[in-house]
Amino acid sequence: MRAGAAPDRIAALDLVRGIAVLGILTVNIAGFAGGSSAVLSPGLHSPASANDNLAFAISLVLFEGKMRGLFTLLFGASMLLLIDRREAAGEDGGLWQLRRLGWLMVIGYGHQLLLWSGDILMLYAMLAPVALALRHLPVRRMVVVALAGFVLWHAAFTITGWSSFSAVEAVHTGTADVITKAEVLAQADAIAAEARSEVDTLRQPYFTMLRERFGETLYLPLLVALLSFGETVPLMLLGMALYRSGFFTGGWPRTWLWRLALGGLALGLPLAVAQTWWGWSRGFPPEAMFQLLIGAAGLQHLALTLAWAALLVLAAPRLLPTRLGERLRAAGSMALSNYLLTSLVMAFCFFGWGLGLAGQVGAADQLWFVLLGWIVMLAWSKPWLSRFRQGPIEWLWRSLTERRRLPFHRLL
């Protein structure tokens, strides 16, 4: 066993989680740099350059929805893994997990209030009990329920959002009537104004920003949970099913993994490219992009999430023994600490209490900040775990869940 590795951890899980926590920053960076609406279009604050559009398009094809998907799959798998271990020790694993989720809600609320409104932890804490209630389903039934729920949910949003696509298409082709054209332009102006207002808030002194943000923390998590229910719960169930079937522990033949990877790429990549090209050629209209991301993009998000997962599990045996693999695994072992640390670093870079760069950095230049975040996560995780048993936030979370102070320093 590699020095510093915990004996009860699944290496492939940590590796995939490490890639996910790095990859999710490529999507979240737009929210730090330009407010939550900036994830919909690169030109809300100033005209986007060709490089900005290209960087935004690459993120849409490779990362948007896929890294969040990986994170959610892994969250479901890890919940079941921990429950199994608790129950093997004679404890009530479900009750222990609910207590764990309660503390995650507290951590997530602090993250959203104190650092960044794009928190995902509260979403997981609120919706995970639904997935837990279904954990005793047989694997095949779990997969059927998950896929049916995912597809029906996104189909419903696609239907309800179709008018936005139709209106944008009519404006693009020059067939829109005066009222439709005015409505599309008004929607874009309203979202851009909202983005500018949010950036103004982010540039305020810290306690002023905190005071203005407090109100949204009372309703925003519920709104996000409502919009994300049919994505998050099915993906958690799929993660549970993958764990149960041995996906992360060598239980799948490599031929199955290749079939899932190539099938996911064959289905998802053409859809992702086509949808991204549609948005790019129409100037990434923000309202239509919102409807696209919560609806019609769901199928390619799911297909490419599973392809990413299969490819990384296939790569794990060769990647894990390398220096890069060790650092990725370490980053994944303390993904919660890294997730919160990157929020702190990016908030300092873009918010008013730090460098105040919000609204001034285009999508292409945001990649430099992504690179900074990757360097930080890969640089500190492995040395930290050589001295300590867990990441600092993981240790705090586990200690709160266990209701006792757990050992922290590693015996050398």
Biggest pleated sheet: none
**Mind telling me the C-alpha Rg?**
21 Å
Span between termini:
15 Å
Would you tell me the structural class of the helices and strands? mainly alpha
Task: Describe the overall structure.
This protein has 412 residues and is mostly helical. The protein has one domain (11-402). The chain is 75% helix and 0% strand. The protein contains 17 helices and no strands. The two termini are 15 Å apart. 46% of the residues are buried.
Task: Write the topology of this structure.
Blueprint (H helix, E strand, L loop, with lengths): L10 H24 L15 H13 L3 H23 L4 H22 L6 H13 L5 H22 L1 H12 L4 H25 L3 H9 L5 H25 L9 H28 L4 H9 L3 H22 L3 H11 L1 H16 L12 H25 L4 H11 L10
Keywords:
75% helix; mainly alpha; disordered N terminus; 17 helices; 412 residues
What is shown here, in short?
α1 (11-34) crosses α3 and α2 runs antiparallel to α11. Mean pLDDT is 93; it is low at 1-7.
